[in-house]
Amino acid sequence: MELEVINREGESTGKKVTLADAIYAIEPNDHVIYLDVKQHLANRRQGTHKAKERAEIVGSTKKLKKQKGTGTARAGSIKSPLFRGGGRIFGPRPRDYHFKLNRKVKSLARKSALTYKAKENNITVVEDFNLEAPKTQDYQKVLNNISEKNEKTLLILPDHNKNLYLSSRNLPKAKVLPCSQINTFELLNADKVLIFESSVEQIENLFN
Questions:
Q1: So what family is this one in (predicted)?
Q2: Given the DSSP bridges, would you call strands 153-157 and 123-126 parallel, antiparallel or unpaired?
């Protein structure tokens, strides 16, 4: 498929770019998309949750009442999970949520996500530009020119660009990533995917 290249003012440059069908027009696989997004979200979890169990509660170990004759259930400790302030039964413990996913599965998931965006006409190729200094206002003006208001945007760069990254960091609906960090979650989470002209070839090399 062919796309027109626009500049930072949202105007046509007269140039066209051909997007490879092997990346942007495959048969999407929903299951691998699910797996890749699941792994991405799992890897973001800190896993530092912790609840105290009865052995970790600070409190007296004295038996609360005599074993028999009270008419109520036996109770041996104030730290019992049955009492308020007691330990928690099978509470959460620190753990690692990471799990392995094959490289080919990830690649297929990202191609599927790009295919969905291409089918919805939500991919725009932008002529390479840079900002002289990190300034959120300048980057917001560029977004206003090349995307609709309140759209979530993902800008894919050929390499890390400090000025563009810092300029977009305070915008809740704008994300900037280099080609090497493309992931299925960010692709699907964006309403519009903006690709630098020089990134198109790099993306093809990355997936091939």
A1: Belongs to the universal ribosomal protein uL4 family.
A2: unpaired
